[in-house]
Amino acid sequence: MSESHFINEQTKKNCDRFKGSPVANKYPSQYRDHVRRDQREKNAILRCMKHVPQNTHVFDFPCGTGRLIKLLMGAGYRVTGVDSSSSMLGLARENCSELSGDSSSVDFYERDVFDSGFDDGEIDVIICNRLFHHFKESSDRQKAFAELSRICNGPIIVSFFNAFSLSMMIKKWSKKIRGKKMQDRIAISMAQFEEEAAACGLHITYKTGTFWGVSPHWYVIFEHNYNASPIED
After folding, report:
1. Are 136 and 183 contacting, i.e. CB atoms less than 8 angstroms apart?
2. Domain presence at residue 233
3. Would the pTM count as exceeding 0.70?
4. Is residue 14 part of a domain?
5. What is the CATH number of the domain that holds 44?
6. How many domains, in total, are found in the chain?
7. What's the domain range around 62?
8. Which pLDDT tens digit goes with each residue over 128-149?
9. How confident is the model at residue 4 (pLDDT cuts 50, 70, 90)?
């Protein structure tokens, strides 16, 4: 991600640390040490994908080291991986080759979520996993929403950290007691997240948490449709 695409320097710092090969090499292609968390997250994603017809072309943006590619392909979707980190993409190609025996079945692009370079409405479906909680300011999230809205003509599945969760409340109080502020893993309310997306022409049609009330990790489906009736687990 180029510096000019950021509004907030802390957001730049949060995202840039994933670019280097040392962090990429440590980034999990699957959470072996957190099996339950991994499964809850994947279950939430699959609940969202029930609203997307099989064989749809899904862009995993950012794809990281390709942790979701096997899940999405196994659920019957065609997948393209996109990330701003060449190191992450290199590992994603290797992991994809291991899981399918042929990495050529998945295309990969090195692109920036703030200025992706894709054409207007070029993409059918986007899943944006574990990215928005690194954005420090509302303006950063809205800039990303605007770009995703521009390039995608269908559902956009986005994860974020919900402030209404036991673990996040504990973390915030711990920071406050020590006189520190949250600089990364930023949690906001569902209402604020919805408002920021609405400012970019997106409307919630589905939302689900990975561990309601305990984990801050939630998934939301946004569409270019203001007449849809929201549903919730």
Report:
1. yes
2. no
3. yes
4. yes
5. 3.40.50.150
6. 1
7. 3-226
8. 999 999 999 999 999 999 999 9
9. very low
